[in-house]
């Protein structure tokens, strides 16, 4: 079997409402990357760990088949891919996070956490995993942010030592969709 490059994309909290993301991610084949949309999902009573285990299992599946694996996460999904990277960095070729909520978990509303308990757990776990990132880990990472993002401000996206790229001045959801579609060739170039 020919070695392929698989990019697993984890969307944010509105992943059940923005199904177009999976369609867009499937077009990444045009750039030599097999894109897969992996929903957590964030809402619901199921605990974080089983949801996270399914993401890790998908990484392991492609890696065990001899393929390259990269991760892309948007908004809340960034916490999931960064946590997965902390556990599987040796199996990950590259990681991109888009408009990512990473820092200051205390600024997320209690209502958001109540409706999306897996996000709260993932973000809490991320705070413990961030200090474990080494310089060689950060070289494989890219942060995309929008200066017009009112949902996740720039300061909430920063991991010192990670390369950053500014998106056009688009609001949160539009910046993410722009990155996945018009920015797809750049995403593919970075992770490859």
List the helices and strands and how they pair.
Blueprint: E1 5-10, H1 20-26, E2 34-37, H2 48-64, E3 68-74, H3 77-88, E4 95-98, H4 110-115, H5 117-129, H6 135-138, E5 141-145, E6 163-166, H7 172-180, H8 184-191
Parallel strand pairs: 1-2, 1-3, 3-4, 4-5, 5-6
Taken from the alpha-carbon principal axes, the silhouette is globular
Distance between the termini: 19 Å
Q: What gyration radius follows from the Cα positions, in whole Å? A: 15 Å
**Helix content bin:** 25-40%
Please report the total strand number as a whole number: 6
- Low-pLDDT runs of 5+ residues are none
Structure description:
The protein has 192 residues and is α/β, with parallel strands linked by helices. It has helices spanning 20-26, 48-64, 77-88, 110-115, 117-129, 135-138, 172-180, 184-191, and strands at residues 5-10, 34-37, 68-74, 95-98, 141-145, 163-166. The protein contains 8 helices and 6 strands. The chain has a 6-stranded parallel beta sheet, with helices on both faces. α3 links the parallel β3 (68-74) and β4 (95-98). The two termini are 19 Å apart.
């Amino acid at each position: 079997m020919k070695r392929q490059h698989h990019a697993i994309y984890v969307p944010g909290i509105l992943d059940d409402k923005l199904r177009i993301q999976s369609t867009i991610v499937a077009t990444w084949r045009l750039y030599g990357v097999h894109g897969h949309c992996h929903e957590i999902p964030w809402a619901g009573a199921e605990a974080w760990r089983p949801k996270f285990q399914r993401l890790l299992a998908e990484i392991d599946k492609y890696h065990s088949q001899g393929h390259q694996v990269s991760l892309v996460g948007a908004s809340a999904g960034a916490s999931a891919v960064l946590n997965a990277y902390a556990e599987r960095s040796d199996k990950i070729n590259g990681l991109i996070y888009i408009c990512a909520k990473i820092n200051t978990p205390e600024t997320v509303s209690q209502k958001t956490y109540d409706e999306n308990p897996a996000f709260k757990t993932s973000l809490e776990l991320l705070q413990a995993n961030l200090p474990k990132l080494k310089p060689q880990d950060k070289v494989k990472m890219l942060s995309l942010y929008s200066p017009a993002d009112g949902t996740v401000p720039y300061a909430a996206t920063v991991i010192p030592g990670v390369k950053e790229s500014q998106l056009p001045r688009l609001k949160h959801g539009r910046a993410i969709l722009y990155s996945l579609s018009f920015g797809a060739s750049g995403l593919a170039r970075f992770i490859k």
